[in-house]
Specification:
This protein is mainly alpha-helical. The chain contains ten helices and no strands. Helix 4 (52-76) crosses helix 9 (134-169) and helix 7 (102-113) runs antiparallel to helix 8 (120-129). The model has no long low-confidence stretch (mean pLDDT 78).
Length: 193
């Protein structure tokens, strides 16, 4: 089953609807969706390394726009929508303390968490809820999300064939590491906030 899913993702990644799908996932992940865009970015760049920069740009722009939507959820709709999203991920107990740290450490929180597998939607909603400076939020989001997606795309573009062969030979291992990284991000947020 894993092999069929991988083959399907590789076909989708090379197809005409790949960029809009990546944009939708990148947007949604920054505000409410649990699956990171890396799940599409990696096979897309592996399938079309000649389009690596375009793929990274779509992921970055859509992620930042989704981050702005997450900020708006936190700023305008925290008590209705934002709190529900936080509760759905089980972070309600520590979220208020996390929100208070923005007064002193907001920029650093955005910069660090924007590069890691820690769910970025939590940062975007918290930034809005804490009324963090919006232009600084957008700039930090562009820098961190862009750095993350362009770094991944660049590495895959330059080292693509060996990485693709490695992924295809050790698909279960790669998938397990990816899942552990995503779950680890959620666990880190839950216990470190």
């Amino acid at each position: 089953m894993l092999r069929r899913l991988y083959d399907w993702m590789m076909r989708l990644a090379g197809g005409p609807k790949a960029l809009p799908a990546l944009g939708a996932v990148s947007f949604a992940e920054s505000s409410f969706f649990p699956i990171p865009p890396d799940a599409m970015l990696l096979p897309m760049v592996l399938a079309r390394p000649d389009r690596a920069w375009r793929i990274a740009m779509v992921a970055t722009i859509a992620s930042v726009l989704g981050g702005i939507a997450g900020y708006a959820i936190g700023y305008y709709l925290f008590e209705t929508v934002g709190r529900s999203i936080i509760e759905a991920y089980g972070y309600e107990e520590k979220f208020d303390a996390f929100r208070l740290t923005y007064a002193e450490w907001g920029l650093w929180i955005i910069l660090i968490k924007g590069l890691t597998p820690i769910p970025y939607k939590l940062v975007t909603i918290a930034s809005g809820a804490a009324a963090f400076d919006f232009p600084t939020f957008v700039l930090a989001s562009v820098l961190t999300r862009g750095a993350r997606f362009f770094l991944v795309a660049g590495l895959l573009r330059w080292f693509g064939p060996p990485i693709r062969e490695f992924v295809e030979r050790r698909l279960t291992l790669v998938t397990t590491v990816f899942v552990v990284a995503v779950v680890g991000g959620f666990v880190a947020v839950k216990y470190l906030l």
